[in-house]
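Usage

Read records sequentially. Each one opens with the input sequence:
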Amino acid sequence: MTTSVAAASEDERLRILVIQPDILDGPERLIPWMQDRGATINVIPGPSAATSSLTGYDGLVVMGGSMGDADTLQYPWLESIRQLLREAHDGDIPTLGICLGSQLMATALGGEVRIGSRGLEAGIARLTKTHAAATDPLLASLPQSFLAAEMHYDAITSLPPQASLLAGGEKYPNQVFRSRLSWGVQFHPEISPATYRTWIQAISSPSDGTVDQQGHGVDDVETLDPVIAASSAALIGNFVEVVRDNHGVAPVRNNASATVCSEL
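and closes with the structure output:
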């Protein structure tokens, strides 16, 4: 599926490849936020990573999914995603890994991911920036402490060598990290309250308490969504500007439109 609207000139367009491992975790709000910065987005399903190339792309985003980093035997194309993450990292192509994407990035670059020792992290988490984030192009403009929407069982237990921790949380410390031009975020900047509610309903029964884990239920996600969305939109906008700076083109107006391509 391809949706086209009036776009910035060909030379001003940024091409960003978005890999979506799970049909239930699409780029959602990332699309308008990136469109507003003049990006052209191509969304492909996880299995297509095995036959995909970064040639012609200025940036890479890997979304989350219900599968785990250790599920490569069941989903062999996870290794193809890791390979693309390594290629982007070594080639200095700006990359953003989200939840599962951040975990795949961690193991692709030599880190470690395991089932979280403190169980599922769901709902809202307050993250705190480290000193290294003060000059980081993605996080510098965000508040010292900000809220994020979470949904993950696995956790990054060891960062890749040479990676810097940019933000941590109370339950799981490795929430945002960077290595060269590759960033991993354990949370979900793309998620809307409606999608979050769908995920909770898919993994829980009304009596198991999952929706109220640590006091963070779906109602809290909905109530605090304007605050969460503001920080998330800023982070995604900053990522696109990193892609733009790396690509070497002039900024476009925030209302510039773009093309979104999807093979899903």
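Summary fields computed downstream for this record:
- The radius of gyration is 17 Å.
- The chain has a mean pLDDT of 88.
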